[in-house]
Design a protein that fits this description.
231 residues, mainly beta, 7-stranded antiparallel β-sheet, 5-stranded antiparallel β-sheet, 4 helices
Length: 231
């Protein structure tokens, strides 16, 4: 289910796009190739029906190098790894979890390692059990934002907030946490914001990316993406 909102929120114009995913019908995966590419292309090439841009990455290079630990299908692609953090994890059934993560746990705990073939460290965590983890700061800068969350019933939310546009101010992290809860998320984690892109097989790019090429909005080549596939 795709939802789009054009609303006045936090005394600013906001454009929110969100996809709701039924876990009994779809599985998720973290995908990273050797080169940076567009979210839509990652989704198409991996046979997905939807995709959202993933975590932070090294810029000014064509190589896909994640800024934080990442594992896809049990394989570790290029990365500048973190020791601890919070992560998007996908278990062997394709069910998404938002977990606390450490390299020590990854290396020492075989059951944990085998349970989650896909792991992507990102953050910060926005919501836990419906409670915001980000202190409110009315002076925090606003940017385009992406996040992934889960409802209490297990429904997965992929959400982007457009920004750096006349009719889309973007949000601070504290505002993003509020918006994610407004959309029904109980738990939510922040993804890379500047490259915010939400794609579906049926509708193409759902949101308006912040980058421009001449007069057109353009996707930014990213390092990785979270992809939705049919079971």
């Amino acid at each position: 289910t795709v939802r789009k909102l054009s609303i006045r929120l936090f005394d600013s114009d906001q454009q929110i796009s969100c996809i709701e995913i039924a876990p009994e019908k779809y599985r998720l995966a973290v995908i990273q190739d050797s080169l940076r590419t567009k979210t839509s292309r990652i989704g198409k090439q991996s046979g997905g029906v939807a995709a959202i841009n993933g975590g932070f990455f090294k810029t000014r290079t064509k190589q896909a190098v994640a800024m934080g630990f990442i594992k896809t299908g049990g394989y570790r692609p290029a990365q500048i790894g973190a020791e601890t953090g919070v992560a998007v994890a996908v278990d062997t059934a394709g069910v998404l979890r938002l977990i606390d993560w450490s390299l020590a746990m990854e290396q020492a705990d075989a059951p944990h390692r085998d349970r989650y073939p896909d792991v992507m460290v990102t953050g910060p965590m926005l919501l836990r059990g419906g409670r915001s983890l980000i202190p409110w700061d009315s002076t925090a800068p606003r940017h385009p934002r992406s996040c992934v969350g889960t409802k209490a019933d297990g429904t997965v939310l992929l959400m982007v907030v457009d920004g750096r546009q006349s009719r889309a101010a973007g949000m601070a992290l504290c505002e993003l946490a509020y918006a994610a809860r407004l959309m029904g998320a109980a738990d939510a984690i922040n993804l890379d914001g500047g490259s915010s892109t939400l794609w579906t097989k049926g509708q193409g790019i759902v949101n308006a990316p912040s980058d421009r090429m001449l007069f057109f909005r353009s996707e930014r080549p990213v390092c990785n993406a979270i992809v939705v596939k049919r079971k």
